[in-house]
Amino acid sequence: MEQYFSEQPRDFLAVATPGAGKTTFALSVAAELLGRRIIDRVTVVAPTEHLKTQWAQAAERAGIPIDPAYAAGKGRTSQDYVGIAVTYAGVAVNPLAMRIRTERFKTLVILDEVHHAGDALSWGEGVREAFQPATRRLALTGTPFRSDVNPIPFVTYAPGPDGIPRSAADYTYGYSHALADHVVRPVLFLAYSGEMSWRTRAGDEIAARLGEPLTKDLTNQALRTALDPEGSWIPSVLAAADKRLSEVRRHVPDAGGLVIATDQDSARAYAKTLRQITGESPTVVLSDEKAASKKISAFAADESRWMVAVRMVSEGVDVPRLAVGVWATTTSTPLFFAQAVGRFVRARTRGEMASIFLPSVPRLLTYASEMEVERDHVLGRTITDEDDLFAAEDDLLAQANAGESASSDEQFLPFEALGSEARFDHVLYDGATFGHEGEVQVGSEEEMDFLGIPGLLEPGQMRDLLRQRQSDRARKQKPTAAAAAAPVPSIEQVSTHEQLAVLRRELNGLVAAWFHRTGQAHGITHSALRKECGGPAAAIANAEQLRARIDRVREWAARKSG
Question: What pLDDT does residue 215 have?
Fold first, then answer.
C-alpha cells in the first residue's frame, strides 16, 4: 500500500502467495482511490464465475457495491453499483463494449490471477483492447506464470541475465515471507507409495511400486491404478487422511478436508468411501453443476468434515477452514499444484497447519519441496524437458478448469487396474524428509507417529517433533542380538514373482537409507544405479539386475565419507 501510493503508478503488478490477502489489498487500494476521487468506477476481471461472486461479496464488506451479474453486452447497470465483475472469457466476447464503459468513467481495473490473460490469445487481446483507456490497472497473481510466448497485457518485461525477457513484478510477497509473518500456514506433505499392478491394452500385466523411477507412461498408469476407487490404495489413504483430520479437529474444531478428484465418477466413488469411513456424507462439488458455488459457500460456513471436488476448488476459492487435503487427481502441472495447495494455506490463528496427502510421485514431491521458489513469466523460452517446471501446460490447465470430465478414454492409453496396496512413505516438511526405516504399513504405530501430530504447532515446534518421533522410533527398531542371529529364509526358495518383490523392497529400503544418509533424492539414486549397473527401471528389472544394484548401494555405503 505504501509503495503503491508513493509511486502512484498507472500499472502495478503484485505477486503474492495464495492466502496472503491479495483481495484485501486490491479492495483497500480501490477504496482509497475512490475516496480521493482519482477513480469513479471499479472493474474486476476474474478467471471464473464463482470468483466474480466472491469478489462482489468481499467488495460489499469493504463498502464497494459490485455487480457480479454484469455482461459485456448489457450496457448500463444499477446506479447502486460502483463497479462490475466479469470473467476473462466474458471480456474476450465483447471487448469493445467493455472499452466503451472504461472510457466513460475514470476506472480502476483489477485483473485477478492475471496469468489467465495468457490462457488464450483472444483473452489477452481482449483485455488489452478493453482496458487500454483505464485510469489505473492493478494486476494480481499468486501462482507461477506460464512459459508460453504470449505476453500478459499491462505487465512489464525486462531482459534477464540470459537476455530472455521476464516479467517484472512491482511487489513480491512469497510463501516463505508470508510464513515468517504468520500470514499463511506451514504445510505438512504426507507421501504414500505402494505396490500397483495393471494390465495394458496389449494384455501384459505390469507390477510396479509407486514412486520408483519409471517412464512417463508407466508413472501415469501406476498413479491411475493407485487412484482407482476399486483398489485398496485410495481407501487406505482416505482413512489415514480422516484420522489426521480427527487429530487436527481436537485443536481446530471446525477444520475441514478436501479430496481433489480427477473426474465425476471418481469423485462420487470417493464420497461413497468417505461416507463408509466417517458415517457422514461429504459435500460433492462437480464442476458443471449450477449449484457448485452454493455448495462451496455452504461448506465454508458449516462444520462438516469432508468435501470432494472436481477441479472446482482451485485458485482464489476461499474456504479458510480447509486443513487436510488428499491429492487424488492425475492433473500434475506446477500451476495446478500451486493453486490447489493454495486452498489450504490461508491462516486464521497462529499455530494452524495444513496436511496434504500425496501419491509418492517424483513430480508432485518436487513441487512440494519447491513451494518457496518464486517464478516469473518467461517469454520465448524453449522447452527441452518434459519434466521442466516451466513446461507449457495449456492442455492440462484447460482440462483442470473445464466443465467436462477430464479422464475420457481419448486422453489416456487404455489399461485395466488390477490391484493396489498403500504404504506410508515419508513426510515432507520445510524441504526436509522425515520417515521410518523399511516399509511402514497403513494403520501401524509408525504411521500414527505422523498422523497423530497435534493440529496446532509453531513451525519450529513441528520440525523438532518430527525429528524426535523419527529418532525415537529408530531407537525402538534397533534389532536385538537374537533377532540378528535368527535364520533368514533363502530368497531362492520363493516364487519368481515373490523373489522380485522382495528384491525390489530391499533395494527401495537401501535407497531410502542412502537418502537419509546423504540427502540425495530417491529418483536420482535409482537413476545413478541404472547408469552404473545397466538395465531398465526397477519395476521391470530382473533379479540379477536388482541384486547388482543392491550390491552397488552397499559398496557406496562401505566407502569412507568425504
Answer: 82
